[in-house]
Amino acid sequence: MQTTIEMTNERESLSTRIALHPFLAGMNHAQLALLTDCAMATRFQKSQTILREGEFANRFYLIETGHVILESGEGFGDPVIIETIGSGDLLGWSWMFPPYVWNFTARAIERTTAIFFYGTILREYCERDPALGYELFKRITPVMMRRLQRARRNMLAIHAHDAVLEPAGVFASPFLDQELDVN
Q1: In angstroms, rounded to a whole number, what is the distance separating the alpha carbons of residues 5 and 74?
Q2: Predicted confidence band at 155 (pLDDT cuts at 50, 70, 90)?
Q3: Percent over 70 (pLDDT), the chain
């Protein structure tokens, strides 16, 4: 059983880790205190699924060490890898936007440490403190846009690759019969 001193030291350590994480750099002390209030340290093993596309989104993570792949398209054949993220990155923005459903699946590709945040609690804090919500929104939006644009580029590249690989004779030509009769 942990003593009060050990729990206080862990909390102080977590608040320092939160304050020093690049994603949160420059946030004020009151905002960092609210974030610390709904946070805890966590770890993921290699190959562990962290988020699953289509499931309820109620949390997010700040990656401290390790790497995570984001992929999409499960159920439509092989998933498409959108991006590999690592130290200093945000994992999970869907907790902030209705309908609160994950847009990607995330899987640790090596042992990964992160700070876990309860998104449902944090949404309530954002409702009470719009400045906190706006600050998080400003930080999450560029991440969201970059990932959605990367997903679009990857899927277009796959589509273009598939189109190039299709045999030329697949498409019907009104002149095909004439061309065959010439011989």
Answers
A1: 46
A2: confident
A3: 79
- Whether the full predicted model's pTM is greater than 0.85, yes or no, is no
The whole-angstrom separation of Cα 35 and Cα 82 is 28
Give me the mean pLDDT over the 61-76 stretch.
Answer: 89
Separation of alpha carbons 163 and 55, rounded Å: 32
In angstroms, the CA 141 to CA 139 distance is 6
Structure tokens at 20: 């020093």
Instruction: Quote the distance between the C-alpha of residue 145 and its chain's center.
Output: 11
pLDDT, tens digit, for every residue of 108-126?
999 999 999 999 999 999 9
Q: Which one-letter amino acid corresponds to residue 130? A: P
In the chain, beta strands by DSSP E: 39-44, 49-51, 59-65, 67-72, 80-86, 90-91, 105-108, 112-118
3-state secondary structure 7-41: HHHHHHHHHHHHHHCHHHCCCCHHHHHHHHHCEEE
Nearest to 18 by CA among 85, 95, 117: 117
